[in-house]
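Researcher: Let's do a round of design. I'm pasting the C-alpha cells now; please hold your answer until I've finished.
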C-alpha cells in the first residue's frame, strides 16, 4: 500500500503553498472576510490568473486536466488560509465543471467548459428547498413544465451560495409530477442568472460572510432545452456524482482548516507566556495540540482515499460521506480548542480561530447534515434506512 503523493502532486502542493502565502495569506483572508457581504472578485481574478479554475477540466475543452486528488490538494491549501472563502473556487468547480464534464452534451461542453476554465463564468448550486433542508427529494416542490422550446420553472430554493454573483444556477426541479419512483422524474437545469421571473434575497449568516447565500424565487422562469443538463427525468442520479465531489471538497477544505488551526495554536503556545512559563510547556495545552494533529491526520487519510477512488472511477459515496463527517467535526472541534487556547483573544475578531470556527460550523449541517450522513453510512453496512 502506498499512502504517499506522487512527485508531481508534491510539486503541485508546494506551488500552491507558495501561491497562498504570496497572494492570500491569513491576514488577507481576515480582511476580505471583514468586508461582510462583499464578494471578493479580486480574489477570483487571482485564482483565474493562477489557472485554478481550469483544474479538473479536460484539456480538450481548454482545461488544465487533473483529478479529484488535485482538486482536493488545491482545496486544502486554500482552506488553510481562506477557510470558507475557498468556496468561491469550490462551487464552480463541482457545480459547473464537474457536472458539465460528467453529463453535459458535446455542445454544452464546448459552450461552457472553456469559459469556466478561464474564469469567465461562475456557477452556483440551487437544490435545497425551504421546507426540507437535506431531504432534497422528499421536499422537492420546484416544478418544471414543458413549453414551446423549453421549460417553465416555478418554486423556491434556499442556501444558493454565490447565486447573485454567478452566471448560472445548477437547479433541480420536478419535471414529472407522477413518477414511478420518487428518485425519477427530476431534471437538472442550468438556469441563467439573471432571468425574468428569478428573484434572489440575501440571507445574513454566521460564517462565510463574503460568500453570500441566497433564497431563490422562481416564477415561470423560462429555460431553453439546450440548458437541460443530461437526461430529462434522471436529474437526481446525475446530481449524486456532483454531490460526492462536493463532499470530498468540503472534507479537503476542513483538512486545510485543521492545518491552519494547528499552525496558529503552535505559534501562540510558543510565543505566549503565563505564570513565568511558555504556554507550550503546559501539558493540558500540549494534549490539545496532539489531539488536533491526530484529527488532521485521520481526516486527511479518509479524504484522500475518497478522492483517489473518484479519480479512478470507483464508487466513493460512502467514503466521501465519511470524509465529510469526520473532517467537518474535527475542524469545528479543533477551532473550538484553538479559541480556548487563545483565551480571551480567541474571541476577538482580529485573530483567526473564530473565523475558522464560524466558517466550518456550517459543514456539520451542509451539504448533508452529519446525522443523515451517519444513517447513510449505516445503510452501507446493511442496516435498513433510518427513520
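Researcher: That's everything. Go ahead.
Model: Designed sequence:
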Amino acid at each position: 500500500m502506498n499512502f504517499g503523493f506522487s512527485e508531481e502532486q508534491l510539486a503541485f502542493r508546494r506551488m500552491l503553498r507558495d501561491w497562498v502565502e504570496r497572494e492570500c495569506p491569513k491576514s488577507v483572508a481576515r480582511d476580505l472576510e471583514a468586508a461582510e457581504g462583499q464578494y471578493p472578485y479580486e480574489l477570483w481574478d487571482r485564482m483565474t490568473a493562477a489557472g485554478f479554475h481550469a483544474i479538473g477540466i479536460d484539456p480538450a475543452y481548454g482545461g488544465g486536466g487533473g483529478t479529484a486528488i488535485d482538486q482536493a490538494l488545491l482545496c486544502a491549501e486554500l482552506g488553510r488560509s481562506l477557510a470558507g472563502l475557498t468556496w468561491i473556487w469550490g462551487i464552480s468547480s463541482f457545480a459547473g465543471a464537474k457536472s458539465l464534464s460528467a453529463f453535459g452534451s458535446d455542445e454544452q461542453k464546448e459552450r461552457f467548459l472553456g469559459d469556466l476554465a478561464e474564469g469567465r463564468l461562475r456557477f452556483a448550486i440551487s437544490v435545497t428547498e425551504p421546507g426540507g433542508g437535506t431531504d432534497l427529494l422528499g421536499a422537492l416542490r420546484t416544478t418544471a413544465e414543458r413549453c414551446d422550446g423549453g421549460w417553465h420553472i416555478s418554486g423556491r430554493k434556499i442556501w444558493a451560495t454565490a447565486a447573485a454573483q454567478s452566471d448560472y444556477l445548477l437547479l433541480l426541479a420536478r419535471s414529472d409530477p407522477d413518477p414511478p419512483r420518487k428518485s425519477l422524474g427530476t431534471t437538472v437545469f442550468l438556469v441563467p442568472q439573471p432571468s425574468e421571473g428569478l428573484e434572489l434575497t440575501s440571507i445574513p449568516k454566521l460564517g462565510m460572510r463574503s460568500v453570500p447565500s441566497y433564497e431563490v424565487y422562481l416564477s415561470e422562469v423560462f429555460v431553453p432545452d439546450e440548458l437541460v443538463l443530461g437526461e430529462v427525468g434522471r436529474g437526481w442520479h446525475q446530481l449524486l456524482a456532483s454531490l460526492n465531489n462536493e463532499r470530498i471538497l468540503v472534507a479537503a477544505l476542513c483538512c486545510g482548516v485543521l492545518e491552519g488551526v494547528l499552525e496558529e495554536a503552535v505559534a501562540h503556545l510558543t510565543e505566549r507566556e503565563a505564570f513565568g512559563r511558555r504556554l507550550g510547556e503546559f501539558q493540558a495545552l500540549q494534549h490539545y495540540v496532539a489531539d488536533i494533529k491526530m484529527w488532521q491526520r485521520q481526516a486527511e487519510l479518509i479524504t484522500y482515499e475518497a478522492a483517489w477512488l473518484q479519480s479512478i472511477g470507483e464508487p466513493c459515496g460512502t467514503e466521501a460521506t465519511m470524509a465529510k463527517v469526520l473532517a467537518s467535526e474535527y475542524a469545528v472541534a479543533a477551532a473550538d480548542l484553538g479559541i480556548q487556547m487563545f483565551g480571551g483573544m480567541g474571541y476577538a475578531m482580529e485573530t483567526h480561530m473564530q473565523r475558522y470556527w464560524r466558517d466550518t460550523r456550517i459543514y456539520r449541517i451542509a451539504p448533508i447534515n452529519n446525522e443523515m450522513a451517519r444513517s447513510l453510512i449505516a445503510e452501507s453496512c446493511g442496516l435498513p434506512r433510518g427513520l
